[in-house]
């Protein structure tokens, strides 16, 4: 398995663990005010990054390496900015919105990079069904 695929899976697993811990803490405390952070942690961190890692693993040698690493860095940077700031916003700190928007833009840019990588791999693949 490629290093990029392992990097995506490793990051996804860490987001998954944090999301699970958040879920356990919310369940134990009865305070579900951070449910949106928990949901985004699991969707943007665990699910999305794991799917990207799987794609790059399946693409193998056709993976555009520099693009894939840019995808990894931009997606994680966006998550690491956005997710904690979302928790602060839910707590009433509206001053975080401008920086949070920058993180959200990075998350979207990460997905754009992934779409471009899919197109590049698709063009490099032999024509089959």
Descriptive labels:
mainly alpha; 0% strand; elongated; 129 residues
Beta-strand share of residues? under 5%
Count the DSSP helices: 4
Shape: elongated
Order of helices and strands: HHHH
Measured distance between first and last alpha carbons = 25 Å
3D architecture notes:
By secondary structure, this protein is mostly helical. The longest helix is centred in the C-terminal third of the chain and has 28 residues, at 97-124. The two termini are 25 Å apart. It has 4 helices and no strands. The protein is 82% helix and 0% strand. The model has no long low-confidence stretch (mean pLDDT 96).
Short description:
The chain is an all-alpha fold.
Task: Outline the secondary-structure elements.
Layout: H1 3-29, H2 35-59, H3 65-90, H4 97-124
